[in-house]
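Re: [help] complex structure
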Amino acid sequence: MGEAYRFPLRVVDGLRLERSLRDVLLPGRVVYDDAGHPHTLPRYFYEVPSWEHAMNIQLSPNFALWELIQTDVREAAPLRGFPRFVPCAVTMLALCLERFRDAVGTFVHVAANGGYRSPRHAVNTGTTTHSWGTAVNIYRIGDVQLDDREAIDRYSAMARQTLPGVWTRPFGPNRGQTDDQLHLDFGYVVSVPHGAPADSLGFDAERRAS
Amino acid sequence: MPTQVPPLARAAPPSDVALDSLHTHIDALERRPGVRTIAVAVHDTETGASFRRHADRWLHAASTIKVAILLGVYAAIHRGWLLPHSRVHVRNRFASAVDGHPFRVAADRDADSEVHRSIGKMMRVADLAVHMITTSSNLATNLLLDLVGLETVQRSLDELYIDGIDVRRGVEDERAFEAGINNRVSADGLVQLLRLIAEERAFTPELSREMLGILHRQEFRSGIPALLPSAVRVANKTGDISTVAHDAGVVYAPNRKPYVVAILTEWAPEASGRSATIADISHAIYELLTSQHGGKHG
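Output below.
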């Protein structure tokens, strides 16, 4: 990745996307978590033209884009095909995962539906940071299936030591807990890369697009 | 001029004497130690003949319920909600029908390990359907039921006027089992459903053929097909738990239209000879419907 390297994905303003996509991505929309706190969904996305692109774009030495955007039939229909759109913060998620992988010293397997999910993905039970592209579900590390307390607690602790400020779901069967995967969560982070078509679109345009 | 092939002569339905003889044969089997109930329903599309014995009796469905779930999946495909190649996250975590408490399908209690090996990844709807039927994968079953919903399955049955199948939960839901919430079938219900598929009346001929194709790939052959001649093709689904052993299928004998049969049996938990009993009855039915004299049973 020398000086000539340019990140190969175009940044798009979600508010300028067509209506069917805006309705499922909800760019810039304020949503409320279970405690009633407001959070603003990402407005800027990388446009992923094809699955082939997703397969070929390495976000970090060990994590390719496809691993963080594989969703199943429960994803909103406009986002099951291509081009697909993923919040720009996904690049930072990959860097955190890389750091975590260094710490565990082996393969880290991200679950299907376990990276970015749109706010309209049917498995969402409320506001989830998966819709910011800043949370990840890991179902296996090396040969260890993360489906019991011992494994989940062990790798949660390693994640918290390795990644300052990361939040992990506690083990358990209830809502907000996890018992068959490790949930790493970096919060409601929004990334606006340089070159994002932001300044040219003011409040009026935002209102028009909503 | 093209030569016209004369249609095959329609076989005569079995005589009353032959039907009585089959009843007597099954009565004798039911008196054997460990056997509690034998329920049978047959519909012969060649002659229009039918045979019914306790055919409307409700029994625990065991894995025969998976045929109804297959219907529900194809209902979702028919309505455009799913495609056969739609991908599904393979996750071994389901909500009990009793209280929503999560449960898992134990890998060592599931006949199919391939779906378990895909946990965390995705599989296609059509592939899950094949695993659900051909190797009776419980994990595939719950994934598909979770996807399409109980309501879709039951509504599909209702819309097709199939009674005798009651879908109330996924499989391996121990809390529901303990609470008495179970899937139930009657022999009549399974024959209605399989007949609809065999006669290509389940949604569309194409979708019916796809379902039938999956049933034809059945790997569990120790029941209905076991004692039939090798030229006979059977599209079937078995179901076994500690107290029931069932098999239901469509039987294609050479040079005739198929017949549809469901053989449901209930047993004492320690009893043996379940598959052999089903195979015996299946053979007797085959003889009844295909022999010129209406079969012999002694």
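Residues 274-290 of chain B form the longest helix (17 residues).
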